[in-house]
Amino acid sequence: MKAQQNHPRVRIVKEELLSDNWYILNKVTFEFEKNNGQWETQSREVYDRGNGATILLYNRHKQTVVLTRQFRMPTYRNGNETGMLIETCAGLLDKETPEEGILRETEEETGYRIDRVQKVGEAYMSPGSVTEILHFYVAEYSEDMTTGGGGGLEEEQENIEVMELPFAQVLNMVESGEIRDAKTIMLLQYAQIQGLLKVKSKPLHILIAGPYRSGTNDDHVLIEKNVNYMNEIALQVYEAGHMPVLGEWYALPLIATAGSTTLGDETFNRIFHPSSIRLLDYCNAVLRVGGPSQGADEMVRVAKEKGLLIYERLDELPLV
Predict the structure, then answer these.
(1) CA-CA-CA-CA torsion for 285, 291, 295, 298, nearest 10 degrees?
(2) Which pLDDT tens digit goes with each residue over 171-185?
């Protein structure tokens, strides 16, 4: 841990050592100056276990990542039935730089000897009680980098299972809750956002939401133009490998069959938007296109409430 900083709004009153059995646990009593200028005495327990580093190993050719699996007693005591946790390779720094530390930990835990890493950030992982800063890295790996089976050090009682998994699968494991480790989720999301690996998705059923009557003054020519535009978007969605749908495809034939005689009459209003709302229960995502439309915006709002994916551009759609 770095030397104590002397901030003008913080006065350390005393520190009491509670435990140094494994790492250092202190009770720190301090005075803190509030925004109104008053000083307030507070006490906090501070656990100092040093700083650490973690890394996501990825292989572009195979579209895989290397993770580890091991027993974590604290999670076992807090709802993790088996105590087993899937994680990125990580470890505490031992009087070394973060890069030196993660190179060492990578070989010890995974059996891969990598020679180049990219730092992507650092973060306090539990700032309410733990001093640790965790340094985040990514690196590409290949089979010719293997030096052993990994698994950690026996003298440190590390029983680590090395897992090579498809990137698309681990993203699903995050979504399902099978992966619940914070540092791992952060690095996997970084890889996804930065496009380190291109994830291929299952085809999605996507509702195309755009203006129908909006901005047309109920001019049938302009309404038809709006529908044709959404149909063209739907074709592009289909050619991208997904299954598109317009609410109009369902609603308009039903409205005509039900006897509607004019736009906005009771029969039209009873079916048009409600049928699209019902359709959302059978979709995975909504693609919002075109100009202003209260109806389309309502589709997006309801879709968000249902937990559906929301896209605003065709190039945002996942690869199939």
Answers:
(1) 50
(2) 989 999 999 999 999
